[in-house]
Amino acid sequence: MTMSQLLPDKLVEEEILCRVPATSLKRLRATCKLWNGLFNNRRFAKNHFDKSAKQFLFLMLTKEYRIRSLSVELKGELGLLDPLHSVQFKITHVFHCDGLLLCTYEGYHRLVVWNPCTGQTKWLNHPVSRYKGYITNTPGGNITYTLGCYQDKKSHNSSYKILRLVEWEKNQRFEIYEIKSDSWRILDVNPDCILMYNHSSVSLKGKTYWFALDEKELDPVVLLVSFDYTTARFARVCLPNPYGIYRIMSLSVVGEEKLSVLLRRRDALESEIEIWVSNPIDEHKVVSWSKILVGDEPRLGLCRGTSFLVDEEKKIALCCDRGICNQDTTKDYFFLYIIGEDNELTQVDFGASSTWQLHSPLLFNYVPSLAQIQ
């Protein structure tokens, strides 16, 4: 007899399958039509997100414009086929939120929201033509995208929005795309600082966090800024040293509740970097920080786009960067650094690229889920 014959369907769904990790549940999808249908059930997806054991996997955006898993639970590359051209979609930027990946390719006017666990995708075209004058006629123009979630007041399900930042000559314009209504609108908001789009940004509890620069101070001060997709408002978050001036910065997420920052202060030793972890982020509590690791590697962070991941319990950090090898200055090299509790640093060479890369390598946490895009 099968499980569905021995136990009521509601019990199997709400008390057993809801607690199975997403990657394991995916392998059970072909068991029967009922279980396969759960992958398209928003109510089950929400219950699964709340109850299931979370898997924190390490993913890496490689120099081949693909996403590769560094975790044994999810082996190999995660490929994404562009249905418009029937070719592999190249990825230069990726942003993770609730098991969904927002992927874009620089110079190609398409982006996609993708759930690698369920295979669901939502393809979008960049709304470039409306703002072409801002970008092409203005030196230094840039566009970046982030993904966040909010609680729908009617259904109480999680819904998703894309925030688009158009930046040119220290001017900033924000637009929001709501996936549910398939519509863009301009936001009348001012973060009162300059978001540092060329440094890492992350999602935690549905909000997006960036480094930002407050240029109203005599010496420009680096701070953290969050964006709430429910209220469409920015808020400031303090760093370990609120008045520090930093040369190298990177941002990461630890588990489901904490942020981590990699910093190199200008007044510190030239090669010394610090890794800090916050207390659990709660809008009703003040953010505090604990320094867990110190590393000494002068080459780390020479190029913009350093990324890192932290295992707080084991006191280990993985740092990913690109740079130029002393033996061959004509190629980009991708490096992975491992920093241990004794501050010992190990370097792993990921190989060279013979062409100039549109992106830096990116390490990020990925939590598989059954989250529904639309």
UniProtKB/TrEMBL annotation:
InterPro entries: F-box-assoc_dom_typ1 (IPR006527), F-box-assoc_interact_dom (IPR017451), F-box-like_dom_sf (IPR036047), F-box_dom (IPR001810), Gal_Oxase/kelch_b-propeller (IPR011043), SCF_F-box_component (IPR050796)
Domain F-box: 7-48
Chain ranges passing through the membrane: none
Domain of life: Eukaryota
CDD domains, per database record: F-box_AtFBW1-like (cd22157)
Organism, scientific name: Brassica campestris (Field mustard)
Annotated protein name in UniProt: F-box domain-containing protein
